[in-house]
Amino acid sequence: MTLSISLTVNGVRTDVAIDDPRVTLLDLLRERLHLTGTKKGCDRGQCGACTVLVDGRRINSCLALAVSHDGAEVLTIEGLASGDRLHPVQAAFIDNDGFQCGFCTPGQIMSAIGLIAEAETGDDPERIREAMSGNLCRCGAHVGIIEAVLDARNRLAEDERRTA
Amino acid sequence: MNQFEYLRPASVAEAVAAASEPGAAFLAAGTNLLDLMKLGALRPSRLVDVTRLPELSNVEQLDGGGFRIGALVRNADLAREPAFAAAFPSVAEALLSGASAQLRNAASVGGNLMQHTRCAYFQDPASACNRRDPGTGCDALTGENRSHAVLGWSNACIATHPSDFSVPLVALDAVVEIAGPDGRREMALEDLYPLPDAHRAPESGLRPGEMVVSLRLPPEAASFRAHARYLKLRERTSFAFALVSAAAALRIEDGRILQARLALGAVAARPWRARAAEALLFGAVPSAENFGRAADAALADARPSGDNGFKIELARRVIKRVLLLAADGTPERMPALPASAFNLENGAVAHV
Amino acid sequence: MSDTISPPSTHVRMGSSRGQPLTRRDGLLKVTGTATFAADNNPQGLVHAVVAVSAIARGRVASLDVTAAKAHPGVIEVITPANRPPLAIDPDQKTGLFGFRFEALQNDRVRYAKQPIALVVAETLEAATEGARLLSPTYEAEAARMGFDDGERYDPPAIGIGAPTNFVRGDIAAGHAAAVHSIKTDYRTPAQYHNAMEPHAIVAEWDGDRLTIDSPNQAIVMSRGLFAGYFGIPAENVFLRSPFLGGGFGSKAIMPGPYILAILAARMLGRPVKLVLPRDQMYGPVGHRGATEQTLRLAMDADGHLTALEHHATAQTSSFDEFIEPAANASHNLYASPAIETRQQAVRVDIGTPGPMRAPGEASGSAALECAIDEAALACGLDSLEFRLRNYAETDPASGKPFSAKALRECYSRGAERFGWAGRPLAPRQMRDKAGHLVGWGMGSALFPAPMFMAEARATLRADGTALVETAGADMGQGAWTALAQIAADGLGLDIEQVEFRSGASDLPDGGVAGGSGHTATAGSALYNAGTDAIAKLAELASSDPDSPLFGSGNAGVEARGGRLYHREDETRSQSYAEILSRAGVATLEGTGKGGRDPAQAEARAMFSHGAVFAEVKVDPDLGQMRVTRLVGAFAAGRIVNPRLATSQLYGGMIWGLSFALHEEAIHDRRSGRPLNADLAGYHIPVHADIPAMDAILVDEDDPYVNGLGIKGVGEIGITGTVGAIANAIWHATGVRAHRFPIRIEDLIA
Ligand SMILES: Cc1cc2nc3c(=O)[nH]c(=O)nc-3n(C[C@H](O)[C@H](O)[C@H](O)COP(=O)(O)OP(=O)(O)OC[C@H]3O[C@@H](n4cnc5c(N)ncnc54)[C@H](O)[C@@H]3O)c2cc1C
Ligand code: SF4
Ligand code: FES
Ligand code: FES
pLDDT tens, C670-688? Predict the structure, then answer.
């Protein structure tokens, strides 16, 4: 049985025929839509490498059944930069050396964007560390990652203050 | 993952009908169900996707001060709901101490309450497990069982229930509202988690086809708001299941405890309500000594199910501490590390 | 701030590129999701392979339900020992120092849990995964041997990668006889798994007898040869691409059986095959850090000088191959003692063969040694730092040779100062924070060898004055793309923007192994030498061109800088590379270089990086929950190519040390031998909330002997010292000395 779902991925509405209801959102992105920026580190919700935003919220795409997300808006790492302008969180990851191997990075960045939207941490590093704890990094780039999130969060807050 | 039939019913009645077939399972966010299906520990032949069911996503304040929470409300949304968090701060704290931000954004209230044990042998289809496959035995009993139950276990099963959320809920006498093939009913949340008997370890108190439609907190549950805490010991500072946890809620007037509520997490197959300890605290002054006595009473029947005797002493200490924290008062703001022993700003005295 | 997709322009540079904190050249690819890791390749016609693994640890597979698997829609092929096509080399044959025996369905034997027992190929990942499960294997199981007491204990012929098993220097008995104080202590370390964030992955495609492989690999050219060997084709027929590794830590330097199976499947089916190991399958066929039991006996005179140092270790290895975690060797080179003895034994258990994992031997050995040193200091009534200073080794204790450079004293003093070590109470349980948590301070010394391997590189000057530099190096997060390019730019006298750096593919000059903290030094030397070789040739052209301002200068008479050659004696005489090439009518000019150690220096001196790590922990006095709140490390590791990258490497190592001390442990069922926490929820590595305030001080060290560039490695040293520092801090907070890792809550609440 083929199920047809419609997703808006990085702003583009896509109708996807799903011939197998077992396909997770992560495998749909990676293996069928060939959006491979989103990574699979554990496939079990334990590492955060697969983090994407669904309807504006960060979730683990490896534990989301694609068919169950009919109609959803999905934002992945590929959809962040506009033209050749990096998203401020992406830029902050480069400036603050927020990665080594880069494998956890798409998930860390998507998670950071979700975190900033949730607006619960303020600029308290302890709260940011807690709120980023669903994203593991085996290389040990934690210091740069948290500095990047803090930096980006402050920059965005500053922008908002200025435009308000 | 095995092949399955995917259904997306339009109403609770349809969902219940669809789930009444043997081998059917409800799919909420799937953060527990899909995980166990990937492991082959659960192999449902039909998934009944309840995520689109109408009216199960509301948080409703009831007349008299109680709350009804739809089964599909997301864990993070509930914790962020200001009126709810103000009325039941220990529930919000427990929610925020569970899993990760991503998982809490997805996970539903019903799925959290109905999540399965984290016993490694349950998750491993090659191991014997009475809870997963009745009658096969329990490999945990003589295996690696450092984190298993110290209360309410039997030789049939020594697993613990992993939910943080449910621990303060059981302390606060929460009720689940259920829809099933025979209509609606409700039960105390505590009864959703049957203890194992000598031979069997049923997974839940629901009958086939029944689903949790909502969770209800009675009005008096909010009367503890000034003195309600959750404390969770774990082996990472965050993103780890509890080794032992406890929820305490006190009503204190004129320096005396008028009412105490206490439940332990990760020590039994259900959130463990410590009624004897609650009774001891009635009318007592909030003091380390009285809390120590309450802790002893709470653990009076505890015994190791394996290599886990240390959990009994640990549970005693967690109770004593969580009572002290509760007596100290609910912090004004959610601590930076919810339910952690490592919060500096909340006025807690670490040494008791 | 860098906010465009053109390379970030924050590169500040004065003079040479080396020493500059450039941002990563691969940063843009990594933050936009466009860095292609192996599993991101999706060639036309791709099929998915999934390995079925064993649920027993010892015995044989009695049956596999191939029919059921094949009946699943989408399943194309099932490979079992019954139909597995032959390989040109038997997987049970040793192929050299890095060659481990592995399982590629050569028979039905099972030697550890999670061993491959079949391969299922299907049109989709979902079908292949379920197909593998449907094989429902049955077994003839034998009792698994999992513990130190279950297996046969023996004296291995060698430990680590070919290191001698035992070592004695001086008279141990005399050392003990002369002692006023002594301690004897034991430590246990568990099996640990590399758990690189990127799972092992391969995409393999055949074209006739030519094979293209996308797979993360720490030793690209060496592996190319191995892959070719198993399939009986010439090495040139294999093209291995590994532009990025999502972490390796040693596990991606060895050949895993599943890769061979995926390549076999691709040949059988004539279609490209993708295989990505699920996380749980990384707890078996891809190596791990073997568990150890260690005993140390230290003897001291009245002044706290060591008179004897004994370190004995037993390490677990598999039933069928050997990698013995060389833990005891950690005691060879750090503390001065007139008598040192190390011994290693091994125990065979039913587990996958261990392998090198970030700081193999040094990590587990240093953990035990640094704790023992603290116990010894306590026995002498001395402060931990003072004791270490009294036993400072001015020459290498093991060989008696001078050190090529050793700035450990400065590491101690700068680290201690930054940390605020002075005034630390000697006795435990003396400090509390305002919330009442016990506070403890501990320290450890860090040491890591500064090896060099062999590498080759090519530098090509192009007509426009820019250059292409090439070596098959591996960037697994250490920043090779950036650091190696910086070195190459210096060799060529070019700005880094003028240098195109190609790496990570097997058709490039052999970049050697990314391991042992020797990659930057080795591949870097090769690149530098290739650059200077090209420049020498360029100088030759200019010098012999009568119309050049550099005519007659000879190649020793010029200096290369900013894309121009300058006359050494007369700066006004100069010419750009482009001009020289164009006048000579040369389109490109190629230089080659090798990296390797000067054998004479290697013979004459002991070469190590050093460091000192200071840790602060907080422990809940009642609940035993622990948290590291501060880590300060000071490291002397020769010349630092890029302080930004080096700091990140050091932090990473220190975080691994934290993880070793408090988190990591693989738990196996003693009866079945199955790992029970083969995931990232049960096998803990630290999360962000566990990472404390960190500080890594780069202590200047000029090492003229280690290599021409003065470069040592920084990738692994951070682990050493840190484990002990944290354990010692826990003791200092609580008064409890845990004798196993990771330290657990129950160790502290008894
Ligand atoms: C890595 C990881 C870490 C975690 N850490 C924690 C932790 O620290 N603390 C904690 O408490 N939890 C933790 N969790 C568990 C998490 O809270 C649960 O997975 C989640 O709450 C389940 O919600 P869901 O909506 O995804 O449920 P699903 O996965 O969809 O369902 C779970 C189960 O409940 C059943 N079900 C769902 N909805 C209903 C309903 N309305 N009526 C009847 N049955 C229903 C399903 O059939 C299934 O059996 C963790 C999970 C992961 C993956
Ligand atoms: S403890 Fe319970 S869940 Fe675990 S193996 Fe035994 S029966 Fe199964
Ligand atoms: S891949 Fe989804 S959390 Fe790890
Ligand atoms: S940068 Fe490698 S895992 Fe985070």
Answer: 999 999 999 999 999 999 9
